[in-house]
Amino acid sequence: MGPKVYISGKLFDKSDAKISVFDHGLLYGDGVFEGIRSYSGWVFRLKAHVDRLYESAQAIHLQIPMSREEMARAIRETLDVNKLSDAYIRVVVTRGAGSLGLDPRKTTDPQVIIITDHISLYPEELYEHGLKVITAGTTRNHPNAVNPRIKSLNYLNNILGKIEATQAGCLEALMLNAQGEIAECTGDNIFVVQRGQIHTPPIDAGILEGITRGAVIELARAAGYAVIERTMHRLDVYTAEECFLTGTAAELIPVVECDGRIIGTGRPGPMTRELRQRFQALVREER
Ligand code: PMP
Question: 112: closest CA among 91, 135, 81?
């Protein structure tokens, strides 16, 4: 029996899990999504992810046709059916099928899709040796256009940044906002360590308010470190003692080079290592 995919209340075999080509999620990227992890069968910060999904939907005027509690239950049930304990969970809510034309009122039946899969992390050696990143020439979406806080199905901005990373032989790219300040990476938030303090761009820089980012800020503060959310520039990364990225899939991964500049010693630093260990303990212990 192969994997089952949840679509709007029913479970389908992977090969039968299909939605309409007239769905505005496909035609216009009109919809929202979440990427969630489970560890030993427990979904990490499920409520935070469900809340963010509903806030994203609210921001694009999309009514999700089930309650937050029903959504959380559907996510847990899909995970159980697929007998996955360490999994990556993708929740997608589309605007639904309709006639051609942008107007969401032309659509009916938003589709709720839940896909669960084995998690594929960055290769282990990158956690030991650190990532190299570049700055993308593509500006991160302006908050007055599509606010990066909305986790929308229109991820082209990030995809363009990712293509630049790949072409430069990197797995991630740093993206700047329209002011030239650091926003985030294509699928991860960024942190640096400077003089023993932890710095990360504020939400106002035009970023996704990462759930992992929030968890890392909490655990760093609980461990007695100062965490400062402030406007940052590339120079702050070039001159940092340490740098790391956070995201649901990546967890917490060190960065050792940016735009050809070696960060710190060129090796993952002690605070990055400590925070990574603390994060790994958190995801296993939090229930
Ligand atoms: N920024 C962007 C643009 C993202 O897509 C993501 C999620 N992959 C993140 C940051 C990290 O957010 P989270 O920790 O909630 O996964």
Answer: 91
